[in-house]
Amino acid sequence: MEEKQEVEVIHSWSAPRSLSTSLMYSFAQRDDIEVLDEPLYANFLRVMAVERPYREELLSKMDSDGNRVVEEVIFGPGEKRYRFCKHIAKQRVPGLTNDLMKRGKHFILIRNPLHILPSFDKVVPPSFLELGLADLVSIYSELCELGRAPPIIDAEDLQQDPEAVLRGLCKDLDIPFQASMLKWDAGPKPVDGLWAPWWYHNVHKSTCFKPAREFPTPLPSSLYDLLEQSLPFYNILRRKTRGTFAMSGSSLPPPPLPVPANEKILIWVGNEIVPRDSAKVSVFDSVVQGGDAVWEGLRVYSGKIFKLDEHLDRLFDSAKALAFINVPTRKEVKQAIFKTLISNGMFDNAHIRLTLTRGKKVTSGMSPAFNLYGCTLIVLAEWKPPVYDNSGGITLVTATTRRNSPNNLDSKIHHNNLLNNILAKVEGNLAKADDAIMLDKDGYVSETNATNIFLVKKGSVLTPHADYCLPGITRATVMELVVKENLVLQERRISLSEFHTADEVWTTGTMGELTPVVMIDGRVIGNGEVGPVTLRLQNAYKNMTADLGVPIPMYPKA
């Protein structure tokens, strides 16, 4: 018999029916580990007065003093280097010593409650308390506060690629991976708790982690409300897993954000402010069903929203043109914008994507007659500097995709159905240009896929008619500045060759402000540098944004 020694404890926390027993069997195959099956179970039954078919037998055979179990059983000496403790989250009841969380290494195993509930229901009627998903979130938060953020693995990922997930988990726990963890013998195990005959029937048939069923077990309607209550807690933890798998089966690590500070922003959706990862609309919403929504882009400068009223005018005009009903009031939209900015502490260098959808439908389908819930308002504010190089300039190519004609879809409606623009942007991306020029049906320049466009020729400023292009608010502002700067302004049809041979070209839009263009279709514009008229108007625009705008309430003025 091996001599007793101090062991390093590995705590596994999960909800019931989450493959936790399979994972316990996996760790039990190692030559350097001993396992404990729910050592705090008796304490849980005693403290919470929970009924189980085996309650009395368990209380008579298992120590129900939780703190004694923690000290003498969980952290007591052992014969192996490691001790694996399988814990069910709800069994961490009040009164347990803080040592349980402060000592050892912890990880969390999660499983979608859609798969847990039908399985649990076969043994014990499930409840929110019985599932313990809120307890799992609490455990995660407490460990993070202790500076010991635990790795999280998902049972579905474990089934899909057990070796990869176990290797990753072992790496996170700083223990060597052993290939023996991938298989075990079928049948009951000496490490099983005495409750095994009630709960372990299926796992006793297993010899490894098997792929999940192709199709889930039907969810009884009686469990629908419980699923709805539980899913948010699962999703909180799911977003923290060490790696998720796409439908294709490939690993999808989280991509870096252009502005890292936007990872933790608050977004207005419907009638509430929610964290970024919780900001979602219904799959029945018209914006999902058919791009049926209108939108605006706004910028925040030094505690003020530039051209707010002009943008709201266009938003409500677009909603009216599309015959939206139950539209929020102008005051309600403004309040949502202000509350979102203030909640995020965004008072400068921020961009707002304001979206108003026709709202949620009672059933899927195109008809607006199905929209009986009222409009959905989305206020997405991000830390976002101008998206183009306004100092060195950008390059454009001409897309083969033509701008929509008013005969088909009037560009004066600022709608979310942007496939026309997106197809042009795809062409620009493939050509490695910053954006793409779009022509109208007659071959004249309309705009780019994302902005309005201007040129300078022999001292005159020209811009296309707003027949096929959106009459942008930044466009109108720059046209106003051109006049104020005593420059000649012409609004007319402009051919592509006129842009190729222009002295200067720039684009305008809320996202990028006033952006110089230095090359179009391989032709250098002017001398390839930012021109004097462009610089002059950039400065005038900067001064205007510093002076004008609707103040944000509670802006902390210097």
Automatic annotation (TrEMBL):
InterPro entries registered for this protein in UniProt: Aminotrans_IV, Aminotransferase-like, BCAT-like_C, BCAT-like_N, Class-IV_PLP-Dep_Aminotrnsfr, P-loop_NTPase
Q: What is this protein called?
A: Aminotransferase
UniProt source species: Macleaya cordata (Five-seeded plume-poppy)
What's any GO biological process attached to this entry? carboxylic acid biosynthetic process
Q: Name one GO molecular function term.
A: transaminase activity
Taxonomy, top ranks, is: Eukaryota, Viridiplantae, Streptophyta, Embryophyta, Tracheophyta
Q: Which family does it belong to?
A: Belongs to the class-IV pyridoxal-phosphate-dependent aminotransferase family.
Annotated membrane-spanning segments are none
Q: Which SUPFAM superfamilies match?
A: D-aminoacid aminotransferase-like PLP-dependent enzymes, P-loop containing nucleoside triphosphate hydrolases
Q: Which UniProt keywords apply?
A: Aminotransferase, Transferase
**PANTHER family from the UniProt entry:** AMINO-ACID AMINOTRANSFERASE, AMINODEOXYCHORISMATE LYASE
